[in-house]
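Structure first, sequence second, as always.
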């Protein structure tokens, strides 16, 4: 049996002259939190709508739980919960009453409401009208609606959008614990790397509809290129010698950045001192995940 809960093969979506998703091949494994990461307008929501069967790909195939989505739409839908863009609710109804509406539509068990309220920590406020909920509570209610019926896959589109730091922490903590506590696979989209970094087991990075990276964050970090940061009294002359010695060098004011790792630091330091330079600082720097993400999403080529 396949360990992939979501699998897309060369999926493309075209709207007349606009193509928001190009040749996309995603692989989401059972029991993981998969971070679907990209800038606003990258194609994340269009992809999610195709995964939910709300729109049809122009080309390619979507398989959920190992089954083709178009041929098994209803069977798959029963096992998928989702929150796309923002939760839908009736403000004049209580949290419990909103969940009861959704429960009846899904045909879920009567006891399911108490279960999901406990999971999202809204039991205390279940009889409060939703129009009086904070934004974070509304988001948690939306996740509770998505959890009704005990889905095996949860798809969340920008679930922390617009929340304050406390609300973001609540949603993040909830998402991280879902696979272990409920055995649910989670795909969560975001344009904020830091949020995905704290939640996800693996990530897919998309920009302008192209998948630029898919794998563990450690694999992404491994792409970071080390360089030496050198502060010296005569950066122009020191940089000139390093160039003549075969190093790639970038100068920023009094600072030199040399494309090599710390294994060459002692040698470079010694040679510069012999040539009369005062060396005030030498250290190795690596690109942060944020730098790598920004570098990836500045273009559209798949890597």
């Amino acid at each position: 049996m396949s360990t992939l809960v979501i699998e897309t093969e060369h999926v493309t979506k075209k709207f007349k002259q606009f193509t928001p998703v190009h040749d996309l091949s995603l692989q989401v494994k059972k029991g993981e939190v998969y971070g679907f990461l990209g800038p606003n307008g990258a194609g994340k929501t269009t992809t999610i709508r195709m995964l939910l069967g709300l729109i049809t790909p122009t080309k390619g195939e979507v398989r959920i739980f190992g089954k083709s989505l178009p041929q098994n739409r209803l069977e798959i839908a029963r096992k998928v919960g989702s929150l796309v863009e923002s939760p839908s609710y009736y403000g004049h109804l209580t949290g419990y009453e909103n969940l009861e509406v959704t429960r009846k539509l899904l045909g879920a068990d009567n006891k399911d409401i108490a279960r999901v309220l406990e999971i999202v920590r809204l039991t205390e406020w279940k009889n409060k009208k939703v129009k009086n909920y904070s934004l974070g509570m509304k988001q948690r209610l939306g996740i509770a609606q998505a959890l009704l019926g005990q889905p095996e896959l949860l798809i969340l589109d920008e679930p922390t959008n617009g929340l304050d730091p406390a609300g973001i922490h609540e949603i993040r903590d909830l998402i991280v614990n879902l696979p272990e506590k409920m055995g649910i696979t989670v795909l969560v989209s975001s344009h904020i790397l830091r949020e995905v970094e704290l939640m996800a087991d693996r990530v897919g990075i998309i920009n302008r509809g192209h998948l630029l990276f898919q794998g563990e964050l450690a694999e992404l970090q491994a792409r970071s290129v080390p360089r030496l940061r050198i502060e010296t009294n005569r950066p122009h002359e020191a940089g000139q010698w390093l160039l003549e010695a075969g190093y790639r060098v970038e100068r920023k004011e009094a600072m030199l950045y040399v494309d090599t790792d710390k294994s060459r630091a002692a040698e470079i330091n010694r040679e510069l001192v012999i040539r009369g330079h005062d060396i005030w600082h030498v250290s190795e720097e690596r690109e942060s995940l944020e730098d790598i993400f920004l570098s990836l999403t500045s273009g559209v080529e798949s890597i």
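Margin note: The chain has two domains: 4-215, 227-286.
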